[in-house]
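User: Predict the structure for this protein chain, please.
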Amino acid sequence: MELNNQTNDASDIPKIVQTDAGSKDGQYKCTKCGATDISLNINTGLLRCNFCRHEFEPEKVEGLETDISNLEGRIIGSGAKDIVADTNDVLTFKCSSCGAEVVIDTASALQARCHWCRNTLSVNQQIPNGAVPDAVLPFKLKKEEAKAEIEKFVGKRKFFAHPQFKKEFCAENVMGVYLPYMVVDINAHANLSGQGETLVRTYTRGQGNNKRTYYDADLYNVERDFDIVVEGLTVESSSDKLNNKASNKTNNIINSIMPFDTENSVKWNANYLKGFTSEKRDTNIDRLSYIVKTQAKDISRHKANSSLKKYDRGVAWSKENLNVKGEQWKAAYLPVWLYSYFQRNNNMLHYVAVNARTKETMGSIPINMLKLFLVSALVEVIGFILWIITAPFLTSNDSEEGNIGWLFLLLGFVFFGVMYARYRNRGARHYHEKETISTINNMQANDSYVGRRTGMTKSRMEGANNLAVRGSTV
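Assistant: Here is the predicted structure, written as structure tokens:
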């Protein structure tokens, strides 16, 4: 699918929205008592003064487009602007209560207590090092709930777990982390053309081992033209977490617990981070743009499938255009409960992650490979015995079952593959093509009959790509 941005002035010159307007560095005081000890109340999702218990109504990010169907050109939240490499991460504030100077290293923290009067000072204004985003999605899941989810996940995978992992596993070590993401809205027009097949009949020819299945299908020229709005497409903006194929860490686990309800994000306030850790964004829009647009075309392709139910053998798109009329980028911190375990014998960092908004849990568990090999070998022996016992019955009278008796010989290999996948979850990912909020309008369908194809040996159309996903491995 070709990805085109309209070449007008609005798209060439991004519009920057200053999302930290009105924010102030330094003391963020309770409006009732003046205290600065403020943190997130997970029960309500609101900031709460820890002295008088007053709770603050959350502030929404202002200035960004809310009706995505009206998006034109490129809009960027000021927290998503390019990182300036030589920015000084260390900021010095003068405490407004006692006058002492307080130093905050924004590479690792965005708050600090005054060492004299114990008031809390916060960094709420954006600085060009990627530390302060446009928005934050507060934690909703308590630590006890996250621990329970992790223990349940690991508990179902204890049999083949590495003995050292079982000995050292402690869910109490789970940490609440705000990870950096880019949240992107897109207003686009899609045009797809190709050919599709509708099954007419299925039949067999030959006998015994020479029996084969054939398919006849009607062939159509297919074209779909529609407007599409994509809301809240979310991608990691940490260069480390972007690498889903890393050989020394299971980054795909963190990717797989999306989506987040980013529509409930609020304006950045450093007090949301109190009691949690965070990771600073280190990736600019230019690097993420190709990933976002590749995922956007996946969404468009899959969204068109609702109009292709007639083509039960698939559609082979030969031309795919996605004309992006408008896009909007904002940087956000999203909440994750993260348990990590370093497997020393192969230098692998395993994660078990819990979405702190939805409870979705995924993980990678270190495997006792010797135990898995031995049990798989036992299963293979059992399969071999079953094959010997059943072979005389399955091969008699030219029965169809005679063609599948050899499957018993694969039982051990299948068992190994299933168990390895269950523990490692290497294929776990965020299904952006289905889980991202998207809407299509003004659908134009143009289909024309070409002719009938007969005697085909494949159950799906040759070259069918309407179910293809390309943005998960970019």
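The longest strand covers residues 175-205.
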